Structure formats: C-alpha cells, structure tokens
Amino acid sequence: MKAVAETMGVASLPALEPVSPGVMVHRDVMVAMRDGVRLAADIYRPANDGRVLEDALPVIVERTAYGKDERSRSEIELGMTRPMTRAEVASHFVGHGYIVIYQDCRGRHGSEGAFTKYLAEGPDGYDTLAWIVEQPWSNGKIGTMGLSYAAHTQMALACLNPPGLAAMVMDSGGFSNAFTCGIRQGGAFELKQATWAYNNARESTAAKHDPNLLRALEAEDVKSWFNAMPWSEGRSPVRWVPEYEDYLLEQWRHGTFDDYWKQPGIYAAESYDTFPNVPVALLSSWYDAYVKTTFENYEGLARDRDRPMALIMGPNLHGNRNATFAGDVEFGAAAPLGGNVSESWLEFRRRWFDRWMKNADNDVDKEPRARLFVMGGGSGRKTPQGRLDHGGRWIAAPDWPVPTAEETVLHLHEDGRLSTEAPARTAAPFVYDFDPKHPVPTIGGALTSGQPVFEGGGFDQREQARFFGCDNTNLPLSARLDVLSFETEPFAEDIAVVGPVIVELFASTDGPDTDFTAKLIDVYPPSEDYPTGFAMILTDGIFRCRYRDGFDAPKPCVPGEVMSITIEPFATANLFKKGHRLRLDISSSNFPKFDVNPNTGAPEGRGRAKRVARNMVYCDQERASRIRLRTLSAAALQDISRVSD
C-alpha cells in the first residue's frame, strides 16, 4: 500500500478561488487512484488578505456520492430554513484551523470511473488519505466526517488502516454487515436500495450527458414499477443506466452470505480487532435505517476499551438530527441534537476534532459515553400541526446496552395476550394464509431513501391512501387476517423499553420458503383527539426461513416442520406511559420496506411465480414463542436522566 502513496506525489493544485475573506478553495483537484482513475476534490484552506496560509494543518475529509458542490440536507442547524452550502460548512472548520476536503466518489458527479455502489470506497478512500499525507499543507492528521453514504465511505477506508487517520464522526451509516442491515435484513432485501438506484440514476454521468436518457428516467412511474417486482435485466425503471441496474440486481439476487458480502465497504465486522486505534463518534436515530449498524459498530469497536468513543441516538429520521418530529409523531423541543446534546452539530464535530486532532483540553473525553433519546412521556394530544405529542428526553449512560436495564420476557398467548406468564400446555397454534400478491403494507418505521414510494417515522398502524399498498379501508393493520396481534394489559405504571429487541418464534409453513415479520408498537388508549387510540410503530424486523440454519446455509423448508427462528427488530428506547399497552404484531410481509417472499423457494430476486403459504405460529408451553426486551422502571429511568441534567 505504501507504494501507492509514493507514486501519487505532491500535487500541482488548480488556482485558488476566494470563498470568504479567510477562506480560499482549490476546485476540482483530480486525485489519481491506484488504477489511474481520477477523483474530483475541492480543498478549502485558510487565507489572509487574499493569500492562502502555507502552514501544515490537520485535514477534515468528507467523501460523498451526492456531489461535493451540492448542499447536504443534513447540514441544517436550529432556526435555519435551508441547509448550509459545502463552502459554509467548510468555512466553519477552516476558521478553527483546519483544511477541509470534499471529494466525489468514483463514477459520481465530477469524478471519473464507473459507479458500483459501496465497493470502491475502501481502496479509493485509502488512496485519498495516502495522497493527503504527502501534501506540504497537511500535518499528517486526518479526520473524517459525513452522513449516510459519507459514513459508509469512512468505515470502508478505515478498515484498510490508511495513513493519517486520526478521528472519525460517522453519522447514520458505516456498514457493520450490509447483509444484516443496509442492503439485506433477516435474509430479505431492503427495497430502499431500489428507490435509491432509481433516484440517483437520474444524477448519473450518463443522465447528465444525455437529455433524452434523463427524460426517460423521469418519465418512469416508479410506484407502478413496485407492483411489478421482482425486476430483471431491462425490466426495471433503472434500465436506462445499466451500471445502476446491474449492481442493484446483483445485490438483490445475492442471497447467500459468502465472500461477496465480506468485501471492504460493506463488511466491517471482521475488522474490529485490527481497526485503527482512533477515536470514533457514532450517531444515528431510532427511525433511521442504520440503527443495527450503529450499535454493532459501537460494540465491535468498544472491544478496545482504551478507544475514545461517543454514541448518540436521537428520535429522528435519517440525518434529521435537529427535527422535533418523525412521521406523525412529535417529540418536542428536547429532541434536536442542537441545544440539547451540543450547542450545534457543527460545534459537536469541531470539539470532537479539536480534542483528538489538536489535543485541546475541552472536556470532550469527560462527556457521557452514550447519550440516548428516550421517546415518550408527552401529553398524547394532537399538536396544532396534527401530530401526536409523544414527547421524550435525553438520558446518559456509561455503555450500551444500558447496564441497569433488566431483561423482560413476554410470552405470546392463544387469546392474544402478551405477558410474563408461561403459556398454556396445550395452546392451539395460530394459522393464517400469507398471499404474496396482497402483502401487508409498510406504514412508517425505520426507513430512509424510500421516496416517492415510502417514508419512515412514527405512524398509526392504520391503512390510509397516503401509504403505498393500502386499500384505503381505514382499518387498523391488526384487522387483517394475516396479522397476529398480541398485547399486554394496560401498564399500571410508566415503564421504559431501552435496548435490543429479540423475537423468538416457533413457526411452520406448508411451502419451501416463507417470511415472518415482527413489529413493536406503543398502543395509546382512546382519547378525545384519537377516539380509537393510536398504535405507534417503534421498530420492526423480518426473517426469511430458508436461512434458519445460518445466512451462509440456505435450504428449503420442510412443510409442517416446526422451526425455531429469531427476528431482530432494531433496538429502541421508548417510555410506555401508564395506561398504554405494548403490542407485538406478527405476520409474513412488510412491503415495500422489504421484498415479498413468493413462497416458492425460487432463487432470491427471481420469483415471478407466487403461491399462498399457510403459516403457523405456536404458543404452547413446549413451543413458547416470546419477545425479549430490556426495561427500566420510571424510577430507574429518572436516575439515569439525572446524569444528563
């Protein structure tokens, strides 16, 4: 690897352009990778009276697929009506003694090469850092930052141990294992990858150079295409840009966990023990698509107990860290990161980099290791904006999972109860028919990149025309015959669920394959504003039964065989108020969040034919299906809350 850095040498940079009195920029610096492909970068440097300062300084890098010249929607602070420009963000850090570099990923915007989502980011990131440390304006210390794809690029390069890496701020991304979170989940395919491919194909090099191709893409009705799945070569709305269709179909169809899924860029799990010994801040939110990735990265990197780490989990959607709501649920003024966890998102990052790249004595290392927003505790009324006032507050903890949380096991009962009581010895199983032509519609949850087909957040689990796939019956999803709902009795006192969620089912099917899904819900009692209550989704998950012996060993189901399967919805943190119920919904589809199992055993992503599966869930004493949670009493939660006051 060292030879790569040496061959790159010291760059002859383009002329400087003024950004502000104290900042100048080299635009479109073309940095050569090991294969000769050149990636475009903008380099922001401090200046004085129109002259760039020649001091060697620490460098902050963001590698993005979304355009180094484009505003990042996440760069919006409290009180702002639109995100800051890249130049404005860079100027903040440059004004505090840094050089800032934004770089376009391979095959995107100003960079050369073909785009293959995720897989080039490890080597390209390594080569970029190796180039930076050779430049006279770099002091050899490099920090990385970025949201989503720009978090994936960070984790990818870090797994290769590049020179110069000194600190990281990974926001809502950085694949621990893309097979279990981000591309696939529980064996199923995450269809946000399909909407992402379509939306971003419109920004591809091919589309920018061919107006007719762009018009063709924009003329596609992607919602209608979701009713024509699975897609295939030349039979998708992405067919106009073959390189995007190719990688999408490859991910969709590659259903066995093998070496393909262990490539740099999509699998950090095997690199935790060799990961650079640098401080890492991890951020996400309960309605983000990367909750599992964030916690797996935290737990994996925390094996090195000397590594400085920060973990922050808000209540928001993907990257919306300063919003007060998600979907139809309002969390209040305490929800934003800005003004609660830190003065601002800009200042959080600056202080992190100052501490670990400049050795500043700013007490960052004395702050709580984990800061978590616990949803719930609000009035339950409808706000003037028409949202449920769910409320919530930040807590601090020394680690994750929260050490003081206790495991609670709730069993499924044949009368629909969910309780700590052991099930009856001879309880009858639940039987339902799962028709893949009529899947259970997705109504919110932990989602991103789904527009214009679906969106994430907290929503009442009730069919409405605004949600894709709903029949507009206005009936709750629990009214469907293919949805099994289990509820606790109304809680006699407040109780918080804070931690991982694990659903253990005994189940069977009459076909060669099927799925089982699980959804955790906070059920509000009827009220003046919500006469039938409000069933608020907290988290959900899925499991494809062909993988019951391991994701690396798929095999057909045996009709009637009772299988022991585990569904792992994302972790959550929610206060169930007195009078509320906890509900667990079990079914076999959650579309369009996940692809629909055709129940035929067809290879992944190729099942055009479909069959109805007769599925069974058992709840007798010997086959006791259950959900495992970690809970805190109101008093225990209050004790933790005092730490962050």
Provide structural commentary.
Keywords: Hydrolase. Pfam families: Peptidase_S15, PepX_C. InterPro entries: AB_hydrolase_fold (IPR029058), CocE/Ser_esterase (IPR005674), Galactose-bd-like_sf (IPR008979), Xaa-Pro-like_dom (IPR000383), Xaa-Pro_dipept_C (IPR013736), Xaa-Pro_dipeptidyl-ppase/CocE (IPR050585). This is CocE/NonD family hydrolase. By secondary structure, this protein is of the alpha+beta class. About 20% of the residues lie in helices and about 30% in strands. The strands form five sheets. Strands 1, 2, 3, 4, 5, 6, 7, 8, 11, 12, 15 and 17 form a twelve-stranded mixed beta sheet that branches. Strands 18, 19, 20, 22, 23, 26, 27, 29 and 30 form a nine-stranded antiparallel beta sheet that branches. It is globular.
Features:
28% strand, CocE/Ser_esterase, disordered N terminus, alpha+beta, 12 helices, globular, twelve-stranded mixed β-sheet, hydrolase, 645 residues, 30 strands, Xaa-Pro_dipept_C
